[in-house]
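Friendly challenge for the regulars: who can give me the structure tokens for this chain first? No prize, just bragging rights.
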Amino acid sequence: MSRTATPLTDGWTLSTGDGTGPDAAPRHQVPLPEGALPVPATVPGCVHTDLLAAGLIPEPYEGDNETRLDWIGRGDWTYTTTFDHPADSTGPRDDDRAAGGGEPADGAGPPRTDLVFHGLDTVATIVLNGTELGRTANQHRSYRFPAGALLRPGANTLTVRFTSPYAYAEEQRERIGALPGAYDEPYPYLRKMACNFGWDWGPTLVTSGIWRPVELETWSGARIADVRLTPDLAEDGVPVLRAAFELERAPGAAGPFEVVVEVAGARATVLVPRGQSAGDVDLPVPDARLWWPRGYGEQPLHDVTVTLRGTGGDEAADVDTWHGRTGFRSVSLDPDAFRISVNGEPVFARGVNWIPDDCFPARVTRERLSERLDQAVAAGVNLVRVWGGGLYESDDFYALADEKGLLIWQDFLFACAAYPEEQPLYGEVEAEARENVTRLAPHPSLVLWCGNNENIEGHADWGWQRALAPGRTWGGGYYHELLPSVVAELDPTRPYWPGTPYSGTPDAPPQDPGHGTVHVWDVWNRVDYRAYADRVPRFVAEFGFQGPAAYATLRAAVGEAELRQDSAVLARHQKAQDGQAKLLRGLGDHLPQPSADDFDAWHWLTQLNQARAVAFGIGHFRSHAPYCMGTVVWQLNDCWPVVSWSAVDGAGRRKPLWYAVRAAYADRVLVVRDGAVHAVNDSPEEWAGTLRLTTRAFDGAVLAKEEQRVRVTARSVGHVDLPSELAERNDPLSCFLTAELTGTRAIHLYAEDTVAELPEARYAADVARTGPGAYTVRVTAETFVRDLALFPDRLDPAAEVDDMLVTLAPGESAVFRVTGAELGDPAALTSAPVLRCVNEAPRTAGKNA
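First reply, four minutes later:
Bragging rights claimed.
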């Protein structure tokens, strides 16, 4: 008795229609040259990447190619491969498998062979050797088909025919009836990554393909069909592993089995009697150490082995083995305060929202995920929210979060629309929820299940009820009934929250700041970012501000000639409604308006304004801890090169926002607001020392100063009122305030940059090469220099800099470290537009009217 898996990754081809012959025409015209197809296909992959590799389509992310490729999502596509199968591995007929085939009651019987798809995107018909095996319509789950009866010795042909996602979804919409939503796309009618159909930061590139691995699995006797691990702590604090499992028996394997669970020196054996196929055990693991989020402790992880074995005679050998990894911690949620606690310790969530990192997910490697999550860690982040319009991410994603100590908030996959609850969608939702809750339960990083993104708000506040006929479903049954019941059954150790924003009860306003979570989008859409300070929510699950991608990223995506504010091609890479105008409106009286013909000033000022806006919001919300216990910035990453809310752009380059988030999410920060200095100490140790407050003129002259001893306990906020001569000035245009405590500093201007009498920037800058591709740039200020920033990617697309947005008082120096650059003229690092500061902005852009 054994199990072996044979990957089916080679020999695939891609064609149109049903792939059966010259008369198999697709229902939608494919604008490719005659004879261009079939082409070699990569599995895992998708139609877009296969056509791109074959040279049949241009790069979808460049220029306005997105609009030229909409026909791909409206076409039918076929993947085909031929593989060899050994003569002694074929299984019984399907009817034999169902009925038992007359085998001895306790025999292992002949081997069974299943065709296993770990991910199909999305509407597929699977055909083996000319016979249909099954059909699928859900990207978010896996599929297993008995294949032994159809396999033959030697060559076998496997065909996967994909129906147009648009055609299927539109047929479902016609059958069920239209429902309201934020976008005029049919994504609610199909269990597929919603943002594939376009979003206010993403392109409309609707994919089809075998997007996760496929394999032939041969086994005999019995196999471990499912393992569900839920790590927790017992009431006495001892780690305990709740392990549940399901077996699949071959028809002749009716005898008893043993299942042995082992972890961290603990072991338990469960007898599975004849005729039964499931069991569970609560296994105390006293030698396991606790897993903590980053900043609270270490992240020990423990290998788990689940072994299926026979109970006597020749069957006493191991039959099947499952390997996993987990960590032990407890999780709780205070629903009134919306406070997440791990191992009994409240955690202020320094969060970011996560979207799929590529429109074509098969291109996202473990290395790329690790780099992106490392960027989150380096920015001080401790929580990543996996947003509901994307995917349940790969096993690598959650394993990396476990290792790095990042908490994961996982949305179920519903976003910004009313969703039908009719069949077959209801059944698909339940199947995907059960599979993914089981798959992700072992991960200690996962701390919260959330029912949806903005759908409860949409139903309450966006006019959906007026658009819904009496009795029409809209998704409420998922969020308030189905999903919580699945979580309660399969993962009772973790909290579930019906949606975000949500105030805790169905009849309460979803955006009540005193309860649950809020999303703050009037800032960016309508009002100045200082409006963040007008509210003190319990938990901010979304807020953000736009800024363009890095210069090198935009240059590669739209071309040098299109780097203009009025470029139609650039506008294709701005998906927010009225986004370009909002970027300029958002400058308000904070920064000068760039002239229409100065792209460099536009790029610099809008990036800087994004960074300032979000940092202002984070500082305000953190200073109100513990009443406010979380901020989740929209968003960490991008899926393509775009003007968006991200801190890291679609090419993986860090925008100024990333550096601002790093500063605002530091363990210890000083926030100046409302006539006081707020010392935020989110570290495990007391913060004590002398707070030095100084008002200086822009030429460096000291105008007023004060010192005060402060002591801020761990995980708390201290508040120090400013003396009157420091809080308000009769000369606000010509001076600035510095607050400093044990090396942590905050600089506060009494007036906005557009009216402040900032001096013309004078500084000395020199460059030194420190190694292959490495340089240091030292800048010494002769005057007050505001938000000094270095953009080496303008000179070499591979270049990065370690710091940005540094403000210097006269006489102070900053050292920037540039890596990844090979420069013919290193001195270019010391002049505009590579080296910028706010003082220079009025010379390149007029002040606001």
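The longest strand covers residues 222-233. The chain has a mean pLDDT of 94. Your move, everyone else.
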